[in-house]
Specification:
Structural class: alpha+beta
Helix content: 25-40%
CATH class: Alpha Beta
Mean pLDDT: 84
Number of domains: 1
CATH topology: Glutaredoxin
Amino acid sequence: MPTTSAARQPPARPLVEVLTIPGCPNRDAAIALAERVCEHLGSAAEVRVIDPDQPAAEQARFLGSPTIRVDGSDVEPGAERHEGYVHACRLYWVGHSLRGLPDEDWLHQALRPAEARP
């Protein structure tokens, strides 16, 4: 039977990453959003706050602050098509307006499948 490295297996529990930069005006609200959604879903997810510098932002494909990811995937639908990795503020198109936080439903949709895996 082939062996699978632990690095390729999904984490035992979902990982919600909140990537921010120092001074981000939406940092605390993004952390609170992640914690609130995890609590609402009864999730055992780990919420981890990461403050990358510019080189780390490029390596992590950081789309700006704040960015919320579930198991390495950005919660914004279509975010994988973005190519500008920056160490700066991020805005999201939510409905018909720009906001400093992703839509709460995006995080719900990203976290549900991660919670459902064995």
